[in-house]
Every structure is written in structure tokens, then in C-alpha cells.
Amino acid sequence: MSRAHDDENLAGAYERGNAMPDGSLRAWVELVASHVRRPAPSILEIGSGTGVFSAGMARWIAGSEVVAVDASEAMLTEARRHHPHPAVRYLRGEAEAVPAAADSFDLALLSRVIHHIPDRAAAARELARVLRTGGRVVVRTTFRERLDAVVYDHWPRLRTIDERRFPGEAEVVADFLSAGFALEEVTSFAQPVTASLAEYHARLTGRPQSKFTHLTDEEFHQGLARLEAAARTEAPDGPRPVLERYDVAVFSLG
Ligand SMILES: C[S@@+](CC[C@H](N)C(=O)[O-])C[C@H]1O[C@@H](n2cnc3c(N)ncnc32)[C@H](O)[C@@H]1O
């Protein structure tokens, strides 16, 4: 796993710097819920981070029970503190060795984690083990060939770094097909994360994502200054929300 997430400072910054408006989180949860095939589903989140999605799914998917697995104790601590929910169990574990019995879940969500998993093929096999027949996996990521995050406009070197870190769509699909899954669809979905570029700049000052650990302090601050300048000259007709777009690949277990 990415050792960066073991850092308590990053875990705290991640919690503060990755919040999403309730409406955006709910729209994402509804997209995930559209792939649930039975009432009161049992859901697994791998790489649950600070628990935003796990708690959101427990809140809005009726009767759901969520097991939220993360490799980092620091991230789990933030999750238990900030996003507790009676229907969510936060557990330490790795994608390649999920702490659950076979045939336990109806759906698994992997949000912004697939690029951190060292052995993706093993993780796909592990998901095939813990999902029930008919179960689905929803992968929320940005595939290498479609890296388009706003941060690349201000930290261009991050794009080059992420081109090495993020897998392409074909690689991920191949790993899941080899593990016995069928590909249902690959779609794209975007939601606002902040109301303005100024708000976006303010949240990034805390360096809240592991990708920023790949930059020197000087590079980070130079990019932050570029982002701040862009925020100052934001649309003359008023601030516009900043959107984050993700690819969503859905796999089913026959
Ligand atoms: C970028 S965060 C994503 C958090 C959350 N899912 C989201 O979308 O905001 C990635 C998380 O995956 C965890 N992680 C990294 N590698 C992992 C692995 N092999 N197994 C389980 N969790 C892992 C990290 O500790 C971190 O909390």
C-alpha cells in the first residue's frame, strides 16, 4: 500500500481537505446504489480512507450494512472519529487479504484506491472470493489515459507522476476478467467538490492528498501560488463550482 496514508498528518489533512458537498456525495451514493441488486445489501468498501463513502452508503442505501476496510490505522482513526455510523464497521486490512468470509457481500466499492494496490490481480481474486454470486464491484478512479484533475493545471509535473502511478482501463479490466468477473460498463461521472476555485485553493493548502508527497515543498508552493492567482481572477460573472470527474468501472460476478 501507499505508506503515505500511515502518516497521521496526511490522514488528518485528508479528512479536512477532501470533503464533498452533501448533494455531491449523495449523487455518488445513488450511482453506487443503482448497482445493488437486492434490498438491505451487505457492502464492502476497500480503501475506505476517512469513511466518507462508507458512512454515506450506510446513510442512504436503505438497510445496508457496510464493512469498511483500510490498510492504514491512521486513516481508520480519522474515519471512526469523524464518520461513525451504527451500520459501518471499520476494519484494518488489505485489498489482497480482505478480513471477511467467502460469499459475504453484494457489492464492493473501490474509490480512489485501485492505483495504490500493489497486486491488483490478487485483489480482484480476493473480491471474487468475498462477493456473492451476482455481486458487483464498482471502481471509482481516473484511468491513466483520462487523467484530467484540476490539480494538473497548476502542478503540471503531477500529471507525469500520475501517468506512472495510475493504471489504464485495459489493465484493470484484464485483472478483473482474469478473476472471473464480467465487465458491465465503464462510465464517467462528475460532481462539484467546492463552490469556487478560491474554496478549492483553501482546501489544498493543507496538502491533503498523497499525490502531493511526490512534489518538493518548493514545487508544491509554486503550484499553490498559481492556483491562488487563478482563483483571484476567477470568472468575472462570479465564482463557479469546481467539479471532479471520475471513471466508474462496474464488474459483476456470474
Ligand atoms: C486516496 S484514499 C481514498 C479514500 C476514499 N476511498 C475516498 O475515495 O476518498 C486511499 C486509501 O486506500 C488505502 N489503501 C491503500 N492501499 C491499500 C490496500 N492495498 N488495501 C487497503 N487499503 C489501501 C489508504 O490507506 C487510503 O486510506
TrEMBL record:
Which positions fall inside the Methyltransferase type domain? 44-139
> Which keywords has UniProt assigned to this entry?
Methyltransferase, S-adenosyl-L-methionine, Transferase
Single GO MF annotation:
methyltransferase activity
GO terms under biological process: methylation
Q: Which PANTHER family match?
A: METHYLTRANSFERASE, UBIQUINONE BIOSYNTHESIS O-METHYLTRANSFERASE, MITOCHONDRIAL
Protein name (Swiss-Prot/TrEMBL): Class I SAM-dependent methyltransferase
